[in-house]
Amino acid sequence: MTWDANETSYWSQDASELAAALESGPNGLSSDRAAARLLSVGPNSVEDAPRLSALRLLLRQFQSPLVLILAFAAAISLALQQWVDAAIILAIVLGSSLLSFFQEYRASTAVEELKKRLALTCRVVRDGVEQTAPVSAIVPGDQILLSAGNLIPADGLVIEAQDFLVSEASMTGESFPVEKRAGIVRPDAPITERTNAVFLGASVRSGTAKVLAVSTGRRTEFGAIAARLGARQPETDFARGVRQFGYLLVRVMIVIVLFVLTVNVSLHRPVIESLLFAVALAVGLSPELLPAIISVTLSAGARAMSKRGVIVRRLDAIENLGSMDILCTDKTGTLTEGAIVLRDVLDAGSQPSDEVRRLAFLNAAFETGIENPLDEAIVTAGKDIGLSTRGAAKIDEIPYDFMRRRLTIVVAEDGAPSQRLFITKGAFSNVLDICTSLDRDGVEVPANAERRAELENVFKAKSAEGFRVLAVATRKVPVKADYDRDDEREMTFRGFLVFYDPPKADARRTIDDLNRLGIRIKVISGDNRYVTAHLAKAVGLDATSMLTGEKLVKLKDEALWHLAPRTDLFVEIDPQQKERIVRALQRTGHSVGYLGDGVNDAPALHAADVGISVETAVDVARESADIILLDRDLDVLRSGVEDGRRTFANTLKYISITTSANFGNMVSMALAAPLLPFLPLAAKQILLNNFLSDVPSIAISSDNVDADRVSHPQRWSISEIQKFMIVFGLISSAFDMLTFAMLLLVFHAGEATFQTAWFMISLLTELAVVLVLRTHKPAFRSSPSQLLLWSTLAVAAVTFAIPFLGATSSVFGFVPLSAIEISAVVAIVLGYIAATEVGKIWFFWSINAAGLSKPIRARKTKASEPRPHPVGPFVSALVATALVVGVALVLTGTLILIGTLVQLGLQPHEALKPVFWPDK
Description:
The protein has 34 helices and 23 strands. The protein is elongated, with a radius of gyration of 35 Å. α11 runs antiparallel to α24 (634-672), α27 (718-746) runs antiparallel to α31 (819-849) and α28 runs antiparallel to α29 (786-801). The protein has 920 residues and is α/β, with parallel strands linked by helices. It starts with a helix and ends with a helix. The protein folds into four domains: 10-229, Calcium-transporting ATPase, cytoplasmic transduction domain A, CATH 2.70.150; 256-302 and 641-848 and 882-904, Up-down Bundle (Calcium-transporting ATPase, transmembrane domain); 310-336 and 504-630, 3-Layer(aba) Sandwich (Rossmann fold); 341-500, Calcium-transporting ATPase, cytoplasmic domain N (3-Layer(aba) Sandwich). A hairpin with a 7-residue loop joins β11 and β12 (406-413). The model is unreliable at 228-232, 852-874 and 906-918 (pLDDT under 50).
């Protein structure tokens, strides 16, 4: 059955009656009924699109506008009964689509396998037994068991609750947790007043509850909001850059193609042939494999990272991980071992105390809110000496929150039926604030200023030694039905709990390694300033570069923007301040990563450029994160950053190289169209060229990346790609013009010879440029991956063989070339490689000199920084490019001249004598 929450107003229904209507009960649903209902209502998800099946993914390849353009060209060929041309076009469409499909399917399969490792689960009661079920399998009628840190998996009615506080900021905008209890609320109550109902997307801050699921998936309140908003994820910087890059290419392509088509028609060339040429040109100039290349490269990076213990939840986060230059993290478990032990238990007079230990044990053992290692250490130490909860019964709990920073348990003790014992444990200053007395050898004495100063001195001394210190206080109160935070007053300070969490042995080395990668560590901790400073000294951070939460709350945003980048330690911080610190660092132009695993880390994880959590984190932290570490270790994160930068570098390789090659061909076509008596390439030849050049591009995802590309944060820069496109595109066009001149003026080539030679040169230069421009170093000093190298060489061999394949080559209109013509082709390609190599060295030198490759995102440059002038480096780059091309043309022309003379049977030195030695 289905259940419409809005029509039934389930929050106004009795829980038992509602359960009966949903065919549930004290034992929950039966497994068979839950399975049948899942088939009826569908999976518990607000997402519209599950993973595409193989068939749907294959069909999607044919939805591309470029494929539709080719289909249009094939239809024209069929209408004109040009069967061979139509067959060639359709074969190339099929080959390209299958190539793209294979790569995308393999990538999507890998990503789905990674997602399965992180799929959320929850505890439910089915068949009368508590069991774990995937969140996607929750159905109306399920009884869900919730505790602190859980994400609420469905809309439902609270059946039982114990100190149950829920954060509903995603639904109501209310930043503070609200308490939920069993009961009945009026039917017309708005969401904010439905105190007996919980909603999908909210998170549990403290306490426990049993909830009857009423609405799942799209039928939930959150699902309705997602449907209205289209359930779209915010666009990342990387996705935005790819989109803008696509717009740039499309605009340039439309202008050039229309120009070429207009020129051909004005020269009275056949309209249909000109139209096919323009269509093929549009396809040949488009990086149609870009979506597949990005998907393949990112998924390959995600697979490599998963082998190192770094799971990527969102592929676009790899780019952000690579550009990260600040990492914010807590210290526990990251810089420390995370194995907290209770070292000492002291009374108010700084003496060991068994009574304070017993009180702390009762508080920790009865606590049902947020699980934490401090309580685990207290309980473990107590059990080791035989402590138990016998003789005491829990009456109530005032849960911990991050404003009070303390937890109170109300206990009934044997022998004292007329009163209750308040046991409060928490941060030293927050506990001392509610104390009016302290215990000295069993006697309560006033907590005057002198005695408070003594307690503070003990706290500071222990903290400065690297210990974490909590305080314990008690109060006897009369029996009543309910207790709340207002009862935490006039308490007696009982003593100190002293914990130790040693720094990791390799923490200093790991921090140094991250610094060498251009990543600065900033500690954001709720712990006190003294223990954090002690740890900072031990791991090599600046202990004097500190900002406390007390000072931060008094700072205006502008002041925080100034201080945040210069501060290493943020101490005594509350959750709202964590998010504010992250946003201040972003405002000053930094790419910020945040590592956290607690309920209070979710806002900062969501705000950061890349949220990082661990596999053992609470649900709300894991779901807010982009990257999951299987081990909470900064060294694991360091390897993840390096893998992320390699992945990002390989993605940009394809984009930059393809852009420059396509732009060069575009300019060459535009210039050649009005000058040649025939088309420089037939439509089918352009398509074959495009297909063959794409084959090695798939291997770019496996390519090696130079160490200097991994050693600093990387960023996406449209302006740099534009300059790259123009400079190297024009170098390519210059050699295309040389090719045209050589073929027409030296070899007097006809249409077939011209098209064959230029096809070979165009394809070989596209293959060569991948190996040259894949690195900032000289090509011979950087080794490509074996897959990229051999796939490139294989296609190059095919290129040389094509003119000599007889019937196959004649289908495409190719003819065999003479030895001198082959030599000229090789000479031009070698000249192009040399010119590109020299131009590359100069280009990257000018980019670095202009300051355009800084690891800070250009869109957020600080106003105080001088911006590099964009025209000067660009103009100088063009001048240098012209000089490089000129020298290369002279050298290449000389080689061609010598080859031509040899072909004519003349010795070069004899033929040139009349020029240089006329008197001889």
